Amino acid sequence: MDAVAVDPASSEPAEENPVVEEPEAQAALERALAELSQTRTELAKTREQLLRTAADFQNYRRRVEREQGQWKSAGKVELACSLLDVVDDLERTLEAADEMASRKPRSRKEAFGGLRKGVELVFQKLMQTLAREGIERIEAVGTPFDEHMHEALMQRPAPEGVEPGTVVQELQRGYRMGERVLRHARVIVAS
Fold first, then answer.
1. CATH assignment of the domain containing 159
2. Which of 141, 155, 151 is nearest to 185 (CA)?
């Protein structure tokens, strides 16, 4: 048998869900429910905003990656176009060398002198093109060894008047673009 609650005033069974007649408690409950409803609405809006922001950021990241690829490609195209003039000059130099070889024999010194002059002009043009792109040689011989600019391949006794740690010979030129080293100069350092 189940226990039944009894109303102490009348000794009769009490209602199972009595209605609270306290207006303050009812008002507080209604305020709490209204605040809960408002908080749920704000949470839904915030969640929606967060999802939109995340989607916007993802789209932004994709756009930046795409644009970086385009900028990189445009930079390569610009450099390639600059080098085409050098390629043309090299072709003309080779044609001139072939023409010199097919002519009546002249002195080797004269033939090689003309060829050297052509190659020298092409080299100067290439170096000017690289300089326009901000690429320059790293100075090595006679400078103190700098691990950020040089790669020491060997050491040799310091010649008279040369401080130990000074670069005495360059085996391969180094290049940089601004502060960025493209290739370290390979050097021999005085010990």
1. 2.30.22.10
2. 151
Residue appearing with tokens 């305020």? 31
Which helix (DSSP H) or strand (DSSP E) does residue 169 occupy? strand 167-172
Ramachandran angles phi, psi of 108, nearest 5°: -60, -40
Indicate the Cα dihedral angle 111, 82, 138, 93, nearest 10°: -10
* CB-based contacts of 148-151 (< 8 A; 24+ apart in sequence): 148/181, 149/174, 149/176, 149/181, 149/184, 149/185, 150/174, 150/184, 150/185, 150/186, 150/187, 150/189, 151/184, 151/185, 151/186, 151/187
Q: Which range marks the domain in which residue 166 is found?
A: 135-191
Average pLDDT, the chain: 82
pTM given for the model: 0.53
Contact (CB, 8 A) for 122 and 89:
yes
CA distance 151 to 139: 13
Q: Is residue 162 part of a domain?
A: yes
d(CA 125, CA 85) in angstroms, rounded, equals 8
Q: Which residue has the higher pLDDT, 27 or 5?
A: 27
